[in-house]
Amino acid sequence: MAVVTPAVGQSFPDPRWFGFWIRHIFVVWAAVHLVWGLGVRPTWRLYRTTVLAVLAWAGVAYTFNLAMGTNYGYLVSKPASASPLDLLGPWPWFVLGAMAVLLTVWAVVFTLPWEHARHRASAPSDGRLRA
Fold it and tell me: How far is 97 from 106, CA to CA, in rounded Å?
């Protein structure tokens, strides 16, 4: 979300602007590196484990936000500027809606194709040539 609809707060060439983009693009790079560089392919088991980790992170981040008066991950309120979260209703519905969208896209776009390819590759062959 931060890469698609950033709320940086600082403008170029402020060092915090660079810090924001380096940190957020690194997260995307890390995911690509895990899949293509290290060969860690998405599976339904990893999907479930990651969903549980994200839910735990959200609980910790929400608690931190309340204690410190912050809004990391937009778990307390929507960003001040317009964003896709505006389409998902008021708090807490936009958090639940964003989570539903995230989990659905993650499952359909990032996990399902790899699982489908894995099942096709492991399917027994009947030895006949295919046209």
Answer: 14
Q: Can you give the residue ranges of every domain in the chain?
A: 1-40, 41-122
Entry pTM: 0.72
Q: Which of 72, 76, 104 has its CA nearest to residue 91?
A: 76
Write the pLDDT tens digit of every residue in 58-108.
999 999 999 999 998 889 998 887 888 889 999 889 999 999 998 999 999
Contacts of 58 (CB under 8 A, 6+ apart): 73, 75, 99
Dihedral sign, CA of 60, 100, 32, 83?
Answer: negative
| CA atoms of 113 and 120, how far apart (whole Å) | 11
